[in-house]
Amino acid sequence: MSEYFIRYPDSEEAKGPYNIEQLQSLSEAKKVTNDTLYYDDDKEVWLAIRGNEGLTESLFPAEKKLSLKKNPDEELNLLKKPEEEEDKKLTVEDILAAAEGDTPETKNKRTKAKWKHRTIGYTIFSLAITFLLSGAGLAVLHLSTIQTLNPALILKDPFIITATIDLLLALCLLLSVTTIYPVVRFRAVLGLGFMAIYFYSFDQVTMAVLISVSMICAFINTFTTRVSVFMLTGPGSIGGMLLFLFLYYLYLNPSQA
After folding, report:
1. At CA 182, angle to CA 180 and CA 183, rounded to 5?
2. 82, CA 20 to 30 Å: which among 103, 130, 199, 204?
3. Domain count, the chain
4. pLDDT, mean over the chain
């Protein structure tokens, strides 16, 4: 059975996970509306319920009238089992408490879900910092070419083009636009391929290894939801990029070595 995390448009706090029956009861209680957001695991983004036709029909049927007892503290019959003489009753407050991890049965599940969403936030921030460092660093290291204001020279420099792309990616990631993850993955593969081979061809093995480590970690960060994995890939992507830029600076300025 599908379960959903939800949050209100004016709040960053996620609640859940809820199954369809629980969401229907919350809908009856007017605690869930068409504007309520749910987390789409496939697209890795928060979407309004109104945009999901199947979910909307389940929670807000056009012809079916849902009713709720006048007293919100009265128990709601949520789960019916034919073999039982009495139906199991839950109140809306019970559902909310369960989703918040306030019951023994849901505490462990809620903790795991909480860390999953925290990790997603951490990975977005890590990716943003990685590409911000890359874009800003490459732009500064090739500033002399940029200052010529010569389009022909600028467009011939692959590192300036890469810097521009990375700064745009960093901006989108800082705005939590996770729909660009496919582009981020392509950029990571490009960095792993082109830049690693480029520096390796000039016998700069250490620089090739560092940029490879940074891009591999960045690629993993686009899909991992495990904090244990992020504890390696997060510092790996940022640290690898910092060390790469430092060695690249020394490579371009041998007198500073």
Report:
1. 65
2. 103
3. 2
4. 82
Quote the tokens at residue 138: 């490459």
Residue 105 counted as domain residue: no
What is the C-alpha separation between 70 and 46, in angstroms, rounded? 32
> Where is average pLDDT lowest: 166-170, 191-195, 216-220, 240-244?
191-195
Q: Is residue 156 domain-shared with residue 70, that is, in the same domain?
A: no
Dihedral in degrees, nearest 10, Cα atoms 212, 185, 225, 23: 180
Cα–Cα separations (whole angstroms), residue 245 to 134, 139, 206, 216, 251: 8, 11, 12, 16, 10
DSSP state letters, 54-113: HHHHHHS-SSPPP---SSTTS-EEEE--TT-SS-EEE-HHHHHHHHTT-SHHHHHHHHHH
Q: What is the DSSP letter of 228?
A: H
Between 207 and 193, residue with greater pLDDT: 207
Domain final residue, candidates 100, 133, 155: 100
Please state whether beta strands 45-48 and 37-40 pair in parallel, antiparallel, or not at all (unpaired): antiparallel
Looking at 70, 100, 130, the residue that finishes a domain is 100
Which residue has tokens 């919350």?
Answer: 26
Residue pointed to by tokens 């490879």: 212
**Token representation of residue 162:** 């890469």
| Beta strand ranges found along the chain (DSSP E) | 3-7, 15-19, 37-40, 45-48, 76-79, 88-90
Comparing 22-36, 56-70, 213-227, which segment has the lowest mean pLDDT?
56-70
Q: How do residues 21-57 score in pLDDT, each as one tens digit?
A: 888 888 888 888 888 988 888 777 888 888 888 888 8
